[in-house]
């Protein structure tokens, strides 16, 4: 080869990037990483040194974070520190480094996370392998499973309100490790630790985890802490009528909320016509609210899921708590039946408003000497927890509650209508409603990676009212002048079912759930009986709809929470169900999708699409959930409801865990929603065919939500804002045009603040603002002359006044706003804890509307629109002793 050719070849080779061919095991590497994923290290070496890496994201976890600083260190030593120490093998094949997992170097650690003092299982505790930067969380029963490298030396475990711990792992074998966490010694049992999953690390969106201790320190209404009232303070959730503890989620109706108590559905979640919820916070362990992006394991409702878990009871010591308030008193007892094996917990609560109001009721209602007045509610919870073995646990829980109103009047009175007469009047009116819920659950561990829960449950709700009225003239013995009437209205819904759920954790990148469910519903939608014996006339006995109907629902589901690399996280699932009623069967396949993509600066972009089907309907005319509302099932004439909700959002938890921020937008379409027709009401549904009194239509709800929370320090709280629309459309209603639904609230602002003062005091404040709810009222009236007109509604009486009704919900109530304040004082002496709560509801006495009505002015004889407000400023005090 000539010298010229040699020089030309050397010049060509010099122009080729040397790093493509020149790297070897002795290549000097300089690298600086601080808590970065392995994938970042690979990208850096490929860019700077031309070292190409080949691996499967399904096999090799490149999300493990590493901190490494090296300068001019041989490549092999750098690869050992990056990969070998993290259980990853590397091998050179051609110009590439192929990465695989050391399968023989993995093991599975599993067990339960529990309270070190009481043995209570902890839901959602984080179990983390620091060296591998991977982890998992305990499920609804406290069980966790983590497959990690064989040489992992320790696990870090943390949970809200508990001291984080490091668990040493002595050898490299798979084993069962039950982890015990000690409660943090703080005034409030809420302290978020750095190792908790951050929002950007979770696929799930539209979800709220509620700490029950937050409920106990927030301002209270009439001294009662309330779980559902705290949920109302979250964006996307409203409470309906003023003072109600019911919830309306993203424009949905009350029946579209699936409320579960230890896995058993509760049909009526409120006491005292909606003022208080049925959930005693002394019995509640964990609350999860899903406003959308429903996991596949949930089905049967369109708008939300509220999953409430009850406490299990102390396995080691006996405890009790007694609480006294202005409205109610409560008692709780828990402890071991057999230490370390069996525990129990029992709570009871009763109001005593009737005892305080007896004298006033006697005077105002003129009850007479034999008269009575009762107005109260009570509820009770019980749970037994038994450990058969390390693999088997059994739980039995029960709830029962009832509201009761009774008025009895027995007196004599005189009349001067033409001639003096004396009468004896007797009247009794009783109104009552209540829930029962029972569940039997069996937990079984098949293997370190496979956990199952089998549940049998029963639930019922019933409403009953009856009345009796008698009067007779005492001074007309020759002519019998009397009335004797009585009647009863009764409705009931029952639910019995069974399900088996499996939780499989094949590796840290996959959490698989699947299961089967079967539910049978029994309905008595409304039974009305009326008897009348007046002036010796023949008995009239009328009964309606004295029939029972039922429907069987079967369901199967599968979901996979799948982490693909550091940036992509998927939740894929499907819920398939069928419903069988006389003359018809329905089938529904409901896909579920959740997606998370990690953006720069650790912001998470989240997307979800959820399809839901609901086979139950609620017949109601009120703006909130009342006990007179009737549950019915889909029939061959009235189909089940369907909904499709799409949501997108951004979320992030700060590096320190101090702040969380999320922004979400959603759009939901609903099909086959029902409503009473223009002329029907609740009691008219007590006919042989309620389907004739309802109409079927469509619904839409859409909007955006903003949530900012400060989670650490003596000063904590959150602000939430919701911008929302909710609309409906029905044939022959509002001329078929779309109109705002009764739960449409354009703007909603919630501000909650808490401030610790020393070790014993905590102050809290809650301010809320909401746009006025839609309202339908007559827009005018005219005097009927008695002549008929094809364009005017027929008058009830010739010459009477007839209302002219405008478009549906064309008006708005006035906006509502309110400030509540609370102060909690905690004092501990040895094994006794004293808690005092002082609250002020509606501090500046804002007159918010309860409802509107027309009232005739006695002077002008004109009808005037009048607003009724029922909740002024209300102070309250409650005191509890725990021992």
UniProtKB/TrEMBL annotation:
Localization terms from the record: Cell outer membrane
InterPro entries, alphabetized: Beta-barrel_TonB, Beta-barrel_TonB_sf, CarboxyPept-like_regulatory, Plug_dom, Plug_dom_sf, Secretin/TonB_short_N, TonB-dep_rcpt-like
Gene3D superfamilies the UniProt entry points to: 3.55.50.30, Carboxypeptidase-like, regulatory domain, TonB-dependent receptor, beta-barrel domain, TonB-dependent receptor, plug domain
Record membrane topology: Multi-pass membrane protein
Limits of the Secretin/TonB short N-terminal domain: 51-102
Signal peptide: none
Keyword Transport: yes
Any Pfam family the entry gives: STN
Phosphoprotein among keywords: no
Keywords for this protein: Cell outer membrane, Ion transport, Iron, Iron transport, Membrane, Receptor, Signal, TonB box, Transmembrane, Transmembrane beta strand, Transport
Family note: Belongs to the TonB-dependent receptor family.
Protein name listed in UniProt: TonB-dependent receptor
Species: Chitinophaga alhagiae
């Amino acid at each position: 080869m000539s010298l010229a050719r040699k020089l030309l070849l050397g010049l060509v080779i010099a122009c080729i990037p040397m790093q493509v061919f020149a790297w070897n095991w002795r290549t000097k590497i300089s690298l600086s990483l601080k808590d970065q994923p392995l994938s970042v290290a690979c990208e850096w070496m490929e860019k700077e040194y031309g070292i190409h890496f080949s691996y499967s994201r399904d096999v090799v976890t490149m999300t493990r974070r590493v901190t490494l600083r090296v300068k001019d260190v041989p490549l092999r030593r750098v690869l050992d520190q990056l990969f070998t120490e993290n259980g990853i093998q590397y091998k050179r094949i051609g110009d590439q480094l192929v990465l695989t997992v050391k399968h023989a170097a993995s093991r599975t650690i599993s067990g339960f996370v529990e309270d070190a003092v009481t043995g209570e299982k902890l839901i959602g505790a984080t179990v983390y392998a620091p060296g591998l930067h991977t982890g998992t969380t305990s499920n609804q029963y406290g069980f966790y499973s983590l497959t990690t490298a064989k040489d992992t030396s320790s696990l870090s475990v943390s949970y809200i309100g508990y001291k984080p711990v490091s668990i040493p792992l002595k050898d490299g074998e798979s084993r069962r490790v039950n982890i015990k966490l000690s409660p943090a010694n703080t005034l409030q049992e809420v302290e978020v630790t750095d190792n908790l999953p951050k929002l950007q690390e979770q696929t799930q969106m539209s979800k709220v985890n509620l700490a029950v201790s937050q409920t106990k320190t927030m301002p209270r209404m009439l001294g009662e802490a309330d779980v559902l009232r705290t949920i109302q303070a979250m964006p996307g959730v409203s409470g309906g009528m003023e003072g109600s503890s019911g919830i309306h989620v993203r424009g949905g109706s009350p029946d579209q909320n699936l409320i579960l108590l230890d896995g058993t559905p509760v049909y009526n979640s409120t006491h005292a016509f909606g003022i208080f919820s049925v959930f005693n916070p002394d019995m509640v362990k964990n609350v999860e609210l899903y406003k959308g992006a429903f996991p596949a394991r949930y089905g049967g409702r369109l708008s939300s899921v509220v999953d409430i878990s009850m406490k299990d009871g102390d396995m080691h010591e006996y405890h009790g708590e007694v609480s006294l308030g202005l409205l109610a008193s409560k008692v709780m007892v828990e402890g071991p039946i057999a230490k370390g094996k069996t525990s129990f917990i029992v709570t009871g609560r009763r109001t005593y408003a009737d005892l305080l109001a007896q004298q006033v009721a006697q005077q105002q209602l003129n009850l007479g000497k034999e008269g009575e007045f009762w107005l109260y509610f009570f509820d009770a919870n019980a749970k037994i927890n038994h450990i058969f073995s390390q693999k088997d646990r059994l739980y039995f829980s029960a709830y029962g509650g009832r509201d009761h109103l009774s008025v009895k009047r027995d007196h004599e009175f005189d009349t001067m209508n033409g001639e003096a007469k004396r009468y004896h009047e007797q009247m009794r009116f009783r109104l009552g409603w209540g829930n029962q819920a029972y569940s039997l659950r069996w937990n079984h561990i098949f293997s370190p990676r496979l956990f199952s829960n089998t549940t049998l449950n029963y639930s019922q709700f019933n409403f009953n009212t009856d009345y009796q009225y008698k009067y007779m003239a005492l001074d007309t013995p020759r002519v019998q002048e009397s009335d004797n009437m009585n009647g009863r209205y009764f409705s009931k819904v029952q639910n019995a079912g069974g399900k088996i759920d499996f939780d499989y954790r094949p590796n840290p990148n996959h959490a698989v759930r699947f299961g089967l469910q079967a539910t049978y519903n029994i309905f008595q939608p409304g039974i009305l009986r009326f008897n009348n014996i007046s002036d010796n006339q023949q008995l009239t006995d009328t009964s309606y709809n004295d029939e029972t109907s039922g429907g069987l629902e079967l369901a199967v589901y599968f979901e996979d929470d799948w982490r693909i690399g550091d940036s992509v996280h998927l939740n894929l699932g499907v819920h398939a169900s069928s419903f069988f009623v006389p003359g018809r069967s329905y089938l529904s396949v409901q896909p579920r999708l959740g997606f998370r993509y990690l953006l720069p600066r650790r912001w998470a972009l989240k997307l979800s699409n959820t399809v839901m089907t609901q086979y139950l309907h609620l017949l109601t005319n009120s703006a909130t959930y009342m006990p007179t509302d009737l549950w019915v099932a889909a029939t061959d004439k009235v189909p089940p409801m369907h909904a499709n909700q799409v949501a997108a959002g951004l979320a992030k938890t700060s590096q320190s865990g101090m702040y969380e921020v999320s922004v979400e937008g959603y759009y939901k379409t609903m099909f086959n929603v029902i409503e009473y027709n223009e002329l029907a009401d609740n009691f008219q549904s007590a006919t042989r065919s309620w389907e004739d009194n309802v109409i079927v239509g469509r619904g839409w709800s859409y909007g955006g939500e903003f949530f900012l929370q400060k989670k650490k320090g003596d000063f904590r709280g959150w602000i939430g804002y919701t911008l929302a629309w909710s609309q409906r459309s029905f044939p022959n209603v509002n001329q078929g045009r779309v109109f705002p639904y009764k739960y449409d609230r354009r703007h909603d602002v919630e501000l909650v603040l808490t401030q610790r003062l020393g070790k014993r005091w905590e102050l809290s404040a809650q301010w809320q603002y909401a746009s006025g709810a839609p309202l339908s009222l007559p827009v005018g009236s005219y005097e009927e002359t008695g002549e008929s007109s094809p364009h005017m509604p027929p008058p009830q009486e010739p010459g009477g006044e007839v209302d002219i009704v405008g478009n549906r919900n064309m008006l708005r109530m006035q906006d509502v706003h309110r400030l509540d304040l609370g102060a909690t004082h905690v004092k501990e002496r040895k094994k006794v804890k004293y808690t005092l709560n002082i609250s002020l509801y509606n501090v500046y006495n804002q007159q918010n509307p309860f409802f509107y009505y027309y009232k005739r002015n006695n002077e002008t004889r004109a009808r005037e629109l009048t607003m009724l407000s029922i909740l002024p400023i209300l102070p309250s005090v409650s005191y509890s002793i725990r021992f």
